[in-house]
């Protein structure tokens, strides 16, 4: 069950660590790129997830301000953070791009002098960026000098802020995760890294949900709920414009056991902050999650 809410709760809730994840989308369905986490992972082992991970100290380097397509202040405004937290806002976007490069081999970058998103379909570029990927995987601090050496800037402006979920207080490991979405770069196909991730594929949201409900893959509750919502949409643009400029609701759910089922209560449920009788929750029934309510 992905290691969620297992064992005794901690004596005091752990402080959530900032993390980012990225939905890269293509096609009319659309399809989203997902990877399977290794069974050795201490968090969400064997789960099929969007590429992502925690913000690294290197993502906060002040030099990122000159290596991204938007300023720290602009990033803060888009993420509804104070302007003084611009470096942290930009770090969230950088982390999403870096982790996606590490885990999926997909890079949202373009030449600093202008031009199209970098392509890996030429043999020489593919070999060179495979070496870069291995270096960044070994040390996150290598990401910034790699881009500088290649004359690239991260297309952070292209990452649309889609969702925010905070791990329940009962968990020993907690993350404050922003979910971003972007159009997949042309000339790049994506592949898992064989270390942190052991498989990868392009899924339509509906197919991923169906595979989860049939027991063929495991999805964490936030991933499951997001995919449920996207299954009703057609085309990449429909996902990227879903929020219409509005900020996503922060989901800070809590676990409870209701009628013998492990249940994740979400904002708007009567047992959280909603009116009497309202249900917005995800319950574990047998070996699969069942969602009641909408929104992510």
How would you describe this protein?
Helix 2 (86-104) crosses helix 3 (123-138) and helix 5 (205-213) crosses helix 6. 25% of the residues lie in helices and 25% in strands. It has two domains: 17-249, Nucleoside Triphosphate Pyrophosphohydrolase, CATH 3.90.79; 253-291, no CATH class. With 296 residues, it is an alpha+beta fold. The longest helix is centred in the first third of the chain and has 19 residues, at 86-104. It has seven helices and 14 strands. Strands 1, 2, 3, 4, 7, 8, 9 and 10 form an eight-stranded mixed β-sheet that branches. A four-stranded antiparallel β-sheet has the order 11-12-13-14, with helices on one face.
Could you give a quick summary of the protein structure above?
The protein is α+β, with helices and mostly antiparallel strands and 296 residues long. The chain folds into two domains: 17-249, Nucleoside Triphosphate Pyrophosphohydrolase, CATH 3.90.79.10; 253-291, no CATH class.
What structural class results from the helix and strand content? alpha+beta
In DSSP terms, counting alpha (H) and pi (I) runs of 4 or more, how many helices?
7
Ranges where pLDDT stays below 50 over 5 or more residues in a row are none
What integer is the average pLDDT? 90
């Amino acid at each position: 069950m992905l290691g969620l809410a297992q064992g005794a709760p901690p004596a005091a809730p752990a402080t959530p660590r900032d993390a980012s994840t990225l939905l890269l989308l293509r096609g009319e369905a659309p399809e989203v790129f997902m990877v399977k986490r290794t069974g050795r992972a201490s968090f969400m082992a064997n789960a099929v997830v969007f590429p992502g991970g925690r913000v690294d100290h290197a993502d906060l380097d002040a030099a990122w301000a000159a290596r991204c397509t938007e300023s720290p202040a602009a990033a803060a405004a888009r993420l509804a953070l104070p302007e003084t937290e611009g470096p942290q806002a930009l770090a969230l976007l950088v982390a999403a791009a870096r982790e996606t490069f590490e885990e999926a081999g997909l890079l949202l970058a373009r030449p600093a002098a202008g031009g199209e998103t970098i392509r890996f379909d030429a043999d020489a570029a593919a070999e060179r960026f495979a070496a870069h990927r291995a270096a960044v995987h070994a040390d996150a601090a290598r990401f910034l000098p790699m881009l500088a050496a290649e004359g690239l800037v991260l297309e952070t402006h292209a990452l649309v802020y889609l969702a925010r979920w905070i791990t329940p207080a009962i968990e020993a490991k907690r993350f404050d995760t922003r979910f971003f979405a972007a159009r997949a770069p042309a000339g790049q196909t994506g592949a898992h890294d064989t270390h942190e991730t052991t498989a990868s594929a392009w899924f339509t949201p509906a197919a991923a949900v169906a595979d989860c409900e049939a027991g063929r893959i495991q999805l964490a509750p936030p991933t499951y709920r997001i995919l449920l919502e996207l299954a009703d949409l057609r085309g990449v643009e429909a996902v990227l414009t879903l929020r219409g400029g509005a900020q996503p609701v922060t989901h800070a759910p809590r676990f409870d056991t209701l009628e013998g089922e492990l249940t994740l209560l979400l904002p708007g449920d009567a047992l959280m902050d909603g009116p009497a009788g309202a249900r917005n929750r995800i319950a574990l029934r047998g070996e699969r999650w069942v969602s009641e309510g909408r929104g992510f």
